[in-house]
Amino acid sequence: MSNDLCKESIALEQEQTVKKLESEDGQPIMEFEVTAKLPTKYGDFMIHGFENRVTGEHHVALTMGDVGNGEPVLTRVHSECLTGDVFGSAKCDCGDQFDAAMRAIAEEGRGILVYLRQEGRGIGLINKIRAYALQDQGMDTVEANLALGFPPDMRDYTVGAEILNHLGAKRLKLLTNNPEKITGLEKFGIDIVQRVPIETKHKKASDRYMHTKKVKMGHLLGTYN
Ligand SMILES: [Zn+2]
User: Fold this and answer.
1) What's the gap in Å between 222 CA and the centre of ligand 1?
2) How many angstroms does the Cα of residue 199 sit away from the middle of ligand 1?
3) Does 153 participate in catalysis according to the annotation?
4) How far is the CA of 126 from the centre of ligand 1 (A)?
5) pLDDT tens for residues 155-210?
6) Mapped to the 3 state alphabet, what secondary structure does the chain carry?
């Protein structure tokens, strides 16, 4: 098995102590900083930089076209996975999902990719590697997280919701296989008018991870039974 604790999420309705970030003054947590052009191998995007006023973390959103005109906008809310997104790790499907989302947005000519810096479903890079080491000994991704003292998913969609709000995107066609992401964003008043599935190509090294995501975490995947 494999697997990581990269992204996609919960659906275990247990005591999830997902903490909500709150600033003391009741103002939005995310502060918009700057926008610039970002030509990519997928097409020409704009990149928007945000800073979390509480933690100092930096997050970005990539957009193509007019995303704030009220029409439902194709959107991916992607949680950072250094090993998958950058190194091409075969332990998870994150890099493939990122690639599929960027292609889908470019094909549509309009869309948003929010890139959240919440590595390892919020537990951080080093703890994610610790979880990998436990998985090397036979645990699955959920068991490894629990063994380290973390809930299966610590991701928080406050940041993503605030970024989408800043961009004027209130109605989304959301690229995801994760029902929790839909409810996570809807809590903030964002209307998910359609779920657009992302099915990535099969990789043997991620079999157990994908199976765990489907069976233990409720992800909507056509394969990996
Ligand atoms: Zn990953």
Assistant:
1) 19
2) 15
3) yes
4) 14
5) 778 899 999 999 999 999 999 998 888 988 998 899 999 999 998 877 777 777 77
6) CCCCCCCCCCCCCCCCCCCCCCCCCCCCCEEEEEEEEEECCCCEEEEEEEEECCCCCEEEEEEECCCCCCCCEEEEEEECCHHHHHCCCCCCCHHHHHHHHHHHHHHHCCEEEEEECCCCCCCCHHHHHHHHHHHHCCCCHHHHHHHCCCCCCCCCCHHHHHHHHHCCCCEEEEECCCHHHHHHHHCCCCEEEEEECCCCCCCHHHHHHHHHHHHCCCCCCCCCC
